[in-house]
Amino acid sequence: MAEVLNLTVSLRGTLEVRDKDNYQLFRLTGLLDAFSEPTFRKVLEGKIGEGPNNIILDLSQIDFIDSSGLGALVQLAKVAKLGENQGSFQIVTNARVTQTVKLVRLEKFLSLQTSVERALENIKS
Q1: Collapsing DSSP states into helix, strand and coil, what is residue 22?
Q2: Burial (CB count <10 Å: 0-12, 13-18, 19+), residue 93
Q3: Helices 67-82 + 37-50 axis angle, to 10
Q4: Could you tell me which residue ranges the STAS domain spans (predicted)?
């Protein structure tokens, strides 16, 4: 069952936690920008800290992402990969998100994926 995340008016999301499969799946819609970034980062950092330690962010329904949103993604990836969790961090993207991430050459660090299914395959392997 998906938990509704309390984010902002312009950014909405849900969280599915699968303990037995060792992952958290965040599905987000709307705008990941300077307005929504502080709340987004705070809420997700808290959830990442709770575990499981493999994180999938489904941004395929995101309409816009700016440099603040990119900065938040980098920080969350560091928390997931380098913190106590030492898990994986993958982002399911759309063309807009992919273009923005590639512009700053972060596609490998942020582990961009084409679908949630592809991201799940990476966890199991």
Answers
A1: coil
A2: buried
A3: 10
A4: 13-123
Collapse the DSSP code of 39 into the 3-class scheme (helix H, G, I; strand E, B; otherwise coil) and give the result: helix
* E runs forming strands in the chain: 3-5, 11-18, 23-32, 55-65, 89-92, 112-113
Which residue type is seen at 21? D
- Could you give phi then psi for residue 59, rounded to 5 degrees? -105, 15
pLDDT digits (tens, 9 = 90+) for 89-122: 999 999 999 999 999 999 999 999 999 999 999 9
* Residue 19: closest CA among 123, 117, 89, 111: 123
